[in-house]
Amino acid sequence: MPETLKEVVLEHYRREPERLYVRCLMPDGAVAPVTYADLVARGSQFAAALEARGARRGDIVIVILPHSPDLFYAFFGAVLGGQVPSILAPPSFKLNRDHYREELEALLRRIDARVVVTDAETAALIGAEANRLGTATLLLAGELPPDAAAVPDVSPAADDLVLLQHSSGSTGLKKGVALSNRAVLRQIRSYAPTLRLAKDDAIVSWLPLYHDMGLIACTILPAVTGVPVTAISPLQWVTRPSVLLKAISDYRCTLTWMPNFAYEFLAQRVRASQIGDVRLDSMRAWINCAEPTIAQSHRRFLERFEPLGVTRASLWTCYAMAETVFAVSQSTDVAPPKIERLDREAFQSRAAAVPVGEGVAAVEAMSGGVLLAGTQVRIVDEQREELDDRRVGEIAIHCHSLFTGYFRDPETTAKSLSDGWYYSGDLGYVADGHVFITGRKKDLLIIAGKNYYPQDIERVVSAVPGVYPGRVVALGLDDPSIGTQRLIVLAEVENESKVDDPALAAAVRTELAGELDCVIDDLRLLPHMWLLKTSSGKVARAPNLHRFLETFHGSRT
Amino acid sequence: MVSDAPEKLARFIQSEVAKDPRQPVLPATPLISSGLVDSFSLIRVLAFVEDEFGIVIPDEAATAAAMDSIELIVKLMDTYANA
User: Fold this and answer.
1) Within its chain, how far is the Cα of A182 from the centroid?
2) What is the greatest pairwise CA distance in chain A?
3) Cα torsion angle, A254, A258, A262, A263, sign
4) What is the mean pLDDT of residues A507-526?
5) Residue to substitute from B33, B41, B80, interface A, most A β-carbons within 10 A
């Protein structure tokens, strides 16, 4: 059995060169199919160009490309050449260019990236010089020599890194999750049977490839299993989510992965006029993953799309993270997600998950399914002592597809990886073999499937002239009506006259959009000393969320 | 045909999709790049343009950058008014 991603791809290529790997649907309606023969031929051209720019086996190659076949070619070109690719998000038009470039250059230096593969448009946007970006050499996808290139004569080893998965957050906090060939292939080889993946399956995805769900489930999984994927532009999906439904209907797709908010977005925003004669009955799995799953979102999704052929049995859930390559647990049609009503009081004040009947104040929890083969979890307390079933604590994971570590960051690695166990920072409980995820121990906001660190937001807002430095909190407020969190920012102002000032509010919003590509749902500019501080003098988030809700929403958490 | 478009669009955006309804929405006011409107709301603006003016802006043209102000949206509407 092949032991590296490169070998797996070459095996598909040798056996079935004309087999479809990915079908890229472009926003203008064009369809760009990529076979394994294309992937290896064009990938090898990228590999030759990378080598010509000094990239050697084991070097980091950064890929910043929009949705296109070249994004796949560049990624696999680096894989064929034995380099370690990492896909980053292309700069949004609203980002502050100088800031983006500075952050990128700092990251390139820190991880010693050899080459950045991008396109002319992005290079111009970030103001890169002719062929360099900071310490790295630039490779423009459009300027690849047209000559055919041989598959590079390098043979990566199973324990060599195969890719870096960069987490969200500013460069200072961005962590590169380093994954080996062995870990990636082990994950896919236990995940595919869990999904009962077969050659006649067809995956469809609108997810960006710089996110683990888009990269592992919808790019690597297809390449390892030979199941074709239909890839939609994430930017097109946002303005026309019905493009997903049409693709499913046109190509009889069977599986997709989406964050919870997408179920609400599709149910609420797809217009009847855009549906036409679309049929969705080919789908056997809509897999809800990457942010807390909400049973109500599934109900609304089903209500809207059942007439088009969506079945309840096809609504699956998954608990996944880059540090385990991808899935930890998965529900399916044969092991459907469990939905529990939990006693609110016991849950909130005793961290106990006690099921209750109707008529008692309750919170609803939906499970992330059962553990994959070869995976164990422990629920632990602050001292990392194991807790009983139905006690809420941090989820620690032991599995055969654990990451190698955070790239060049032994300190952060040591904090979360210990004796073969990964301490996820997620809170949850286990009951009847199902894993339930109930929140986060670490500060992390997940808004529409995208992760933000509140510290990043607070730092940017704090620096806006007029805001009281250091007296800002960023909070995520769960909003079941949209299936995700809303971003609340509470900021004290230096001068009383600026309380609620629209001009200062506009400045804060513009700065945050430019630096972090982030939109505040509710921004409050408050008088000095409004925010609550802990005895150690830190602005604490939870008490201020409480105060915010009491003051502005007349309710208690 | 769409002479009242800027006013109607401004009213809709300010009251329905802007994160801060106190912010004035002038023809050149940046919408997305100012953090006033998030990209998930663009679909509502597109639906409004379709329902109110009968103009369908094709997906490849309906990008956040091309819809970053009332002026830009009106320009898009003019381009596709008779398409």
Assistant:
1) 22
2) 72
3) positive
4) 94
5) B33
3-state secondary structure of A105: helix
Say yes or no for a CB contact (<8 Å) between B64 and A513: no
| Confidence check: pLDDT of A286 > 80 | yes
| Residue of chain B with shortest Cα separation from A237 | B59
Is A240 in Cβ contact with B59 (below 8 Å)?
A: yes
pLDDT reported for residue B3: 80
- The answer to whether B47 contacts A93, with C-beta atoms less than 8 Å apart, is no
B73/chain A closest Cα distance in angstroms = 14
Number of residues that this document lists for chain A: 557
Predicted structure pTM score: 0.94
Of B36, B46, B62, the CB nearest to A509: B36
Mean pLDDT for A479-490 is: 93
Residues A87-142: tens digit of each pLDDT: 999 998 888 888 889 889 999 999 999 999 999 999 998 888 778 888 899 999 99
Residue of chain B with shortest Cα separation from A265: B40
Q: Which of residues 337-396 of A touch B (CB under 8 A)?
A: none
CA dist A134 and A181 (Å) reads 29
Pairing between strand A285-288 and A315-320?
A: parallel
pLDDT for A186-214, tens place per residue? 999 999 999 999 989 999 999 999 999 99
Q: How far apart are CA A301 and CA A298, in angstroms?
A: 5
Nearest to B11 by CA among B3, B21, B2, B1: B21
Query: Nearest to residue A464, comparing CAs of A488, A441, A492, A437?
Result: A492
**Given CB atoms, is A448 within the 8 Å cutoff of chain B?**
yes
What 3-state DSSP class applies to A72?
helix
Rounded to the nearest angstrom, the minimum Cα separation between B30 and chain A is: 9
Q: Is A317 exposed, middle or buried (0-12, 13-18, 19+ CB in 10 A)?
A: buried
Per-chain mean pLDDT for chain A: 94
Q: Which two tokens stand for residue A394?
A: 């941090």
Write down the H helix ranges in A351-448.
Answer: 410-416
Among A55, A50, A72, CA closest to A5: A72
